[in-house]
Each structure stands twice: as C-alpha cells, then as structure tokens.
Amino acid sequence: MTDMTHAIDAATLRGWLNDGQPLALFDVREHGQYGEGHPFFAVPLPYSRLELEVGQLAPRRAERIVLFDDGDVENPVASHAARRLADLGYLNVTVLDGGAPAWAAAGYTLFKGVNVPSKTFGELVEHIQHTPRLSADDLVARRAAGESFVLVDGRSDEEHRKMTVPGALSCPNGDLALRLPALLPNPNTPVVVHCAGRTRSIIGAQTLLNLGLPNPVLALENGTQGWYLAGHALEHGSDRFTVAVPSAPVLAAARERSVRLLQSALACPRCRPRRHSNGCMMRTAPPTSSISVPPTNLPGVRSMARCMRPADSWCRQRSLYRGARQPRHCVRRRRRARAGGCQLVAPAWL
After folding, report:
1. Phi then psi for 324, rounded to 5 degrees?
2. How does pLDDT run across 226-257, given as a tens digit for each residue?
3. SMART domains, alphabetically (predicted)?
4. How far is 71 from 33, CA to CA, in rounded Å?
5. Is pLDDT above 70 for 177?
6. What is the per-residue pLDDT for 3?
7. Do 79 and 70 meet the contact criterion of CB atoms below 8 Å apart?
8. Whole-structure pTM value
C-alpha cells in the first residue's frame, strides 16, 4: 500500500468525520452488505462499480477519501480499491483498518438500511420546524366529510404512476414552488403532500411553508405505506401529471419566493465560507416547455454542470450523487420553466 493510501483506526476516522472538513467515507462492499450495517455517514461505492461511480461521487481528485470493507484480511477489498483510486489519480485515499467490524468493536454504531442520513434529516426537519401532518384515517375522514383540499404526490412521475394515494396529483417536490400555486382555487384550500413514506412528505410540505404559501399545508403521515397499512387501497396507473406551462405571473411569483428562500439559506453563517465548489444540474422530468428564466445572480453562487439528477431526490438520496460529507454544492439551472422553482428551492435544503 502506498503512503497516499495508508490505514487509520476507527477513533481517527470518527475525529475526521467531526472536524468540519469535506470527507468521503465509502463502503466498498456490495449493496447488500452495506444495508446490513455501516457508519452513519458512509456512502455505498461497491468495488464492482468503483470506476463507474467514483467520478460522480468524488469529482475532485484531491478529495479526502476513506474506504472500508468487512475486514477480511484474506481479501482486503478496501486496499484493492485504494490502489485503483490511486491509479485513477486520487491523491488523498485512506483505508479504515479492520473495516466495519473494527468500527463496531471500537464502540461505534453500525446503522442498517439505506439513505439513513437523508431520512434522519427529514425527521429533524419535522421535529424542529413542527411540520403539520395528518394520518391516513384523518384524510379519509376529511374526504368523507366533503372537505375541499388539494392532494399532491411529491415523488417522481414514475413512482406516482406505480402507486399513489387515490386522487393525488403528481407534482414532484422540485416542482412544487413552480406549479402548485396555479392548482389552488383560493388561499384557504388546504394542501396535503404525500410520498411513499415520510421524508419527501415532510420536505415537500415544509418547503411550501418556508416559501410562505398562504394555504394550510400538511404532510400525510407515513405516505402510501401508512395509507396501505391503515387498510386503504392504493391507486395504480395514475396519469394525473402537472405538465402545463405556468403563466408568466405564476413563474415570476415562484421565482421570487424561491430567491427569498435561497437568500435565507445562504445567509446562514455555516454557508458563507462554503459557496463555491462542485455543482450539479437539477431536473424533475423531461423538458416540456422552452420558457427561459433569467440568471439568478445571487452573490456567492456559480454554476458548474457535473451531473443531472431529479430535484426531488436530493434530500432523500443524496448519497447517490455526492460522496463527501461537508461538501460545497453548486446547482446549475436548466433554461426551462421549472428552473424558476427547483433551481433555487433544492439548494436551500442542501
């Protein structure tokens, strides 16, 4: 092993994870092993897909990277991966000595599942900002009582088509700021946002509240899973999609709300020294219009197209697109109508 890929112990790694500097912690085991237990901020990068995915997860060759495996001394996958990354030009690669078992043996937790930090983030948002919510049975009761409300599915159109709460309109979270206002008959009509579980319901609802939407906004607790577990049937094959091009006044209003939200996020003291770095392009679906949106021109924001990802997935699946903890993100807009919304709303959460 070269000096650039030396080994560290679990205590040193824990210190690095908390030193405030960018760090990519990659689990080079296969996805099934990752799901069975990994450090909280670990990102899956299976050795079988190393060359295919590392360029997106760690675009900077000087990125500080730590790799770990299952600690098998007969087949040190992390060491093999470290040497391969060095061959690819990565300059700062380290291996966790003993892998995941050593992390657990040092008294640190291995978390099961996927997207753990993103899901935790959603729970923290709800806890800190007291995002309003209602249960599946509450929604059924409101519908039975004839109450008027707008129910939106904050996931992608593909997920919406597969299954959704009956009557929901597909409006991915990245498009909420742009397209939802035109769907509301008046400022008193409640809006209910749902997803498959919890995270995107919470983030979608809180996004609308942060944008200052005058309507009452609620997250459907536990999404389609909670709906089904409560004994209610799901709808399959829905084609209720929000594809209409917003009018110029609606586009301008969405942009104004989004700019205010992003300005508020950039004013956070932690953001000020971290404004320039690698960037990504947001999208929500194939383009449906050719309306151009003027550049944002916010101080400290510049664009560098690196990848193209659904805007609704950034808070839920961030580990698929960016490997480092404490990174500096830059989001490039697409010159389409949706840029007035998702271009600015998604970075506020990042």
Report:
1. -85, 140
2. 999 999 999 999 999 875 566 777 667 767 76
3. RHOD (SM00450)
4. 12
5. yes
6. 44
7. no
8. 0.74
Q: Which residue has the tokens 């000020």?
A: 272
Domains 3-113 and 118-229 are alike in CATH topology: yes
For 211-323, where are the alpha helices, taking DSSP H only?
A: 223-229, 248-266
Cβ-in-10-Å burial (0-12, 13-18, 19+) of 44 comes to buried
Q: What is the pLDDT of residue 316?
A: 58
Cα–Cα separations (whole angstroms), residue 77 to 16, 105, 257: 22, 19, 48
> Domain 3-113, CATH 3.40.250.10 — does that match?
yes
Structure letter (DSSP) for residue 313: G
Q: Which residue has the tokens 């959460």?
A: 349
Residue-wise DSSP of 196-218: SSSHHHHHHHHHHHHTT-SS-EE
Cα–Cα dist 194/168, whole Å = 8
pLDDT in tens, 311-338: 555 555 565 556 676 555 555 555 444 4
- For 248, residues 6+ apart whose C-beta sits below 8 A from its C-beta are none
SS3 for 7? strand
**Beta-ladder partners of 279:** 330
DSSP line for 121-154: HHHHHHHHHT--EE-HHHHHHHHHTT---EEEE-
DSSP-derived secondary structure letter, 38 = B
Residue 223 has pLDDT above 60, yes or no: yes
Predicted confidence (pLDDT) per residue in 85-124, tens digit: 999 999 999 999 999 999 999 999 999 999 898 899 999 9
Report whether 42 contacts 68 (CB < 8 A). yes
What is the phi-psi region of residue 211: left when phi exceeds 0, alpha when psi lies from -120 to 50, beta otherwise? alpha
Instruction: State yes or no: pLDDT of 55 exceeds 80.
Output: yes
pLDDT of residue 306: 42
Whose tokens are 């709300």? That residue is 257
Superfamily name and number for 118-229: Rhodanese-like domain (3.40.250.10)
The answer on pLDDT for 65 being more than 60 is yes
Which tokens hold the place of 179?
């397209």
Instruction: Check residue 291 and report its DSSP letter.
Output: -
- CA angle (201, 204, 208) in 5-degree steps: 135
